[in-house]
Amino acid sequence: MATLILVRHGRSTANTSGLLAGRTPGVALDERGAAQAAALPARLAGIPLAAAVSSPLQRCRETLQPLLDARPDLPLHVEERVNECDYGDWSGRKLGELNDEPLMEVVQAHASAAAFPGGESMRAMQTRAVEAVRDWNARIDSEHGEDAVYALCSHGDVIKSLVADALGLHLDLFQRIHVDPCSLTVIRYTRLRPFLVRLGDTGDLAALIPRETPGNGGTAEVGGGAGAP
């Protein structure tokens, strides 16, 4: 099945200001985030991407834009189900002041029970994101073959929840996972189970370039190495 490259959006103005942006409109990449996005085409050079999928929010689309400019034939698909968690009444508030909210302790230690006032639950966030990825895996496999690779740009909590699902971790443990702005997390899906290939990678991804596998009829293999499926 398909290999998914999860891209967390570059550093945003909300990240710099210590705000919980949520779905607040007008949150853009800051200067560093724009530089991170500009480096994305070189980091993914040589990897034949079948598609790019994005959260509808501005900071994700800005992160992917340099990659789309470098690859004019790469189709972009906006996917509502990988949107940021709807933090409801918490959106736009300072993280420092939210730390005093009793709910924050639940978010950190018992995420599956956390529901944001006026927003959605973290459980619902994970469910929609996992369903989106499963649907996109099936579509990419059908249209491009099971060795295809595609990129999906989303948000920290969404990506961490997808990693937890891939690892078979309960959502209550997903806060143990960390992904930096503009980091790349790679999950290879197979018929029986997913494999986490990269987590929060901010360096070289040359090992992900498909290569010919000796004695395997020329079938392309992504990644490889000890323990690879």
Provide the descriptors you would attach to this structure in a database record.
229 residues, alpha/beta, two-stranded antiparallel sheet, 34% helix, disordered C terminus
**What's the alpha carbon Rg, rounded to whole Å?**
18 Å
The total of beta strands comes to 8
Percent in strands: 15-25%
Mean pLDDT: 91
The structural class is alpha/beta
Main sheet attributes: strand count, strand direction, barrel closure: 6 strands, mixed
What's this, in brief?
Helix content is 34%, strand content 17%. By secondary structure, the protein is an alpha/beta fold.
Question: How does this model look, in words?
Answer:
The protein is of the alpha/beta class. 34% of the residues lie in helices and 17% in strands. It contains seven helices and eight strands, in the order βααβαβαααβαββββ. The chain has helices at 13-17, 31-43, 58-70, 95-98, 102-109, 122-144, 156-167, and strands spanning 3-8, 49-54, 76-78, 149-154, 184-189, 194-201, 211-212, 220-221. Helix 2 (31-43) runs parallel beside helix 3 and helix 6 (122-144) crosses helix 7. The longest helix has 23 residues, at 122-144. The protein is globular and about 50 Å long.
